[in-house]
Prior knowledge:
The chain has a single domain, classed as PK beta-barrel domain-like (M1 Pyruvate Kinase, Domain 3, Beta Barrel), CATH 2.40.33. It contains 4 helices and 13 strands. The longest helix is centred in the C-terminal third of the chain and has 13 residues.
Amino acid sequence: MRIASLNVAAARPLLIKGRSVMTGIGKRPVEGAVALGPMGLAGDEQADLSVHGGLAKAVYAYPSEHYPFWQTVRAQARVSLWDETLPPGTLGENLTLEGLLEKDVCVGDVLRFPGCELAVSEPRFPCFKFNAAMGFDHAARLMSDSGWCGFYLSVKTPGTLRAGEAFELRHGPREVGIVELFRARVAAQRR
């Protein structure tokens, strides 16, 4: 398991259905060591702290294994070309991870990196900004249906992170899985 890409962004305005909305969803890869504090990565911002960011959601991780799916559905929606690569960070994640899927993660698990530790806190739930970032109106629904949501991490031990670093998963109490928590909340919202 490793960090395929480390991504940050400053919050900026995005035009969504005729109105300007602040967002930090369009993350871009960065090179070298990046400082990690209790509220997240240096150089990264979230626009709406009621749903993203803060101590429990300081860092957002997303599996790179899901990227081919998103590239395909964007091409089917005619917002990109079939062979157009979707850059890391497009889904708003700080950490594009290789080798760790939502089904393998529970709340309380710890990701141990050479320079810090992060604890799994909860799944990410898509909002209207995700649709705009992906370029089509059903992106949030596809994330909800697939369960490919990624997960938030709190900072257990501050330090540094860098793209390419390997990490180790240390299991916590294994009581609440990310996928189960995500599906329960999605089902409750649809009632």
